[in-house]
Amino acid sequence: GANPLQKNELGHTPLTYAKEGETATLLKEAQNTFAEAQQKREAEERRKFPLERRLKEHIIGQEGAINTVASAIRRKENGWYDEEHPLVFLFLGSSGIGKTELAKQVARYMHKDIKKGFIRMDMSEFQEKHEVAKFIGSPPGYVGHEEGGQLTKKLKQCPNAVVLFDEVDKAHPDVLTIMLQLFDEGRLTDGKGKTIECKDAIFIMTSNAASDEIAQHALQLREEAQEQSRRRLAENLEDVQKSEKITISNTFKEQVIRPIL
After folding, report:
1. What is the Rg, in whole angstroms, of the alpha carbon atoms belonging to the chain?
2. Backbone dihedral region of 96: left (phi > 0), alpha (psi from -120 to 50 degrees) or beta?
3. What is the pLDDT of residues 98-139, one digit of tens each?
4. Between the ranges 33-42, 122-131, 216-225, where is the mean pLDDT highest?
5. Domain 84-207 belongs to what architecture?
6. Which residues contact 100 (CB under 8 A, 6 or more apart)?
7. Distance (Å, rounded) from C-alpha 66 to C-alpha 53?
8. Domain named AAA+ ATPase: which ranges (predicted)?
9. Residue 38 near residue 3, CB atoms below 8 Å
């Protein structure tokens, strides 16, 4: 049947125009029934066509990152997450490896309206202290107060959006301080003093920081894998383990990741 949740150009559903009475009651019941059926269809679709498979159709390689992101989002969809804090990811690596594209594909999966559901903030535009006002809006009495902030204005329209902070290492420390509040409490206060709740949002930061160190460590892992293969062949090992994976070591976490954070 017809979709009772369909909105017109003004963003109104049929229920908005129904007067109190039998018609309004029927429309409310139809909305609830349709929403439940839609949730079941979406859950079945996710089961048959999981997020990992969707992402791998658009991104070559990066299986570890894809599996980690998909697992976190699946836990969120199933309710196995902290409702008081939003999901936050940090993608590190050199340019061209798919950091931004992965964020876009996550937004496309989470939201049918990609224009509102995906917010991209180029953090190189917030390198100066005074540019914090562009982020959350100017306080009363300052130029641009009525316009609002670039981030807060978009989060008001879609509080559960996927927000990409591109090249976050280039932003001014004061902007990063605001982001810490956003990540920790899941809310943000704009220049007008209004609080935007966005605990259901997904925040993704990207950075090229330490890309050389990460690449160097990857080469080291590759050399270790080759050395292990040579050792097995030299010792005539019959029971060769199936493509043994060298996982990210504690040394990598301590020497590369922790200094970045």
Report:
1. 23
2. left
3. 899 999 999 988 887 678 899 999 999 999 888 888 888 877
4. 122-131
5. 3-Layer(aba) Sandwich (3.40)
6. 120, 164, 166, 206
7. 9
8. 85-233
9. no
Sequence spans of domains, the chain: 84-207, 210-232+253-261
Packing angle between helix 51-58 and helix 99-110, nearest 10 degrees? 140
- The answer to whether 87 and 74 have CB atoms below 8 angstroms apart is no
Q: Which residues sit opposite 91 in a β-bridge? A: 206
Distance CA 43, CA 77 (A): 9
Place of tokens 């017809």: 2
Cβ contacts of residue 201 below 8 Å, gap of 6+?
Answer: 86, 87, 155, 159, 160, 161, 162, 163, 186
